[in-house]
Amino acid sequence: MHNLQQEVSLKSFNTFGFDVNCKGLIRIYSISDFQRFLNHSFKPFKILGGGSNILLTKNLNDYVVKNEIKGFDILEEDDHQLIVKVGAGEIWHQFVMWSLEHKLCGLENLALIPGTVGAAPMQNIGAYGVEQETAFLSLNAIHIETGESHTFSKEACHFGYRESVFKNIFKDQYFITHVTYCLLKGDQNLHTHYGAIQDVLNLKKIQKPSVFDIAEAVMDIRNSKLPNPKVIGNAGSFFKNPVISTIHYAKLKSQYPTMPNYPISCDAVKIPAAWLIEQTGFKGLIRNNIGVHKNQALVLVHYGNGDGNELLSLAKEIQNKVKTVFDIDISPEVNIW
């Protein structure tokens, strides 16, 4: 197959920068590319997007399929909104910037999230009070076993907090080729209430923010907190923010009055995992080649020449400590290979 490279290091294909090999790397540029790939029966194989949400712990006896399907196809447009079908191999942040250039809103809070468009619905990416499902319409995917094409509506994806059917019941069963979003025109439904967005806007003396202002504020915040993976290996937030009962939160609040929280229903509260990790003393930890970032405890980092198992061991240690101290389970957001 013309897109096949044998015995390839994945060091440059994962943002942690761990140097592990795969059996072969196959780049997919179109639907027909993937269908030809299926006909060649390269098995076993794993599907790779931007490599920003994986932790590689060993050499893989698998082929790795790299999604490189690109393009923006405007399907519908009127005075209020625009519907665009995006290649799953497009870089997510470049899609956000494309939306801003077209004066569209809905994605501005999701600026600078690493990864590809195809990975966005898989884990229902979100940041600063917004998740991609807000603008999501549908996605197109190919069933790996049958080769048949399927369209999934928002309802069929069963989105949850960093969840979709593609992370559970349909895990490793589909290859996403395109994702369709509906974006609003102008500065509608802007979200400035979460995190430090409003603080940044106040600092800049912006009273009526545009989508550009929101995106710039988000990028300023992310750049101040998160390390550049080209400088220090990382996969962004390593853990999901846990959701606990209001009863459990009330008990903890009496012990930890400063514990932050974000109510999500009348009986459930989201707790920032970064706060929990920081309270247990891991923030800024450096252990040989790996550690916890000094500015953001949610980010586990690789300083170079390390091993994925070192980092996985540290992650488990953090989980155990948080469970012991707070009786809260925190789960990895990244996929572990």
Mean pLDDT: 94
The amount of beta strand, in percent, is 25-35%
Query: H/E order of the elements?
Result: EEHEEEEEHEHEEEEHEHHEEHEEHEEEHE
Helix content: 25-40%
Low-pLDDT runs of 5+ residues are none
Number of strands: 21
Please report the number of helical segments.
Answer: 9
Could you give a short account of the major beta sheet? 6 strands, antiparallel
**Structural class, from secondary structure content?**
alpha+beta
Radius of gyration: 20 Å
- End-to-end distance: 25 Å
Gross morphology is globular
Question: If you had to describe this structure to a student in words, what would you say it looks like?
Answer:
There is one protein chain. By secondary structure, the chain is an alpha+beta fold. It contains nine helices and 21 strands. The strands form six sheets. Strands 6, 7, 8, 11, 12 and 13 form a six-stranded antiparallel sheet that branches. A four-stranded mixed sheet has the order 1-2-5-3, covered by helices on one side. The protein has a four-stranded antiparallel sheet with strand order 14-20-19-18, with helices on one face. A hairpin with a 2-residue loop joins strand 18 and strand 19. Helix 5 crosses helix 6 (211-225). The protein is globular and about 60 Å long. The mean pLDDT is 94.
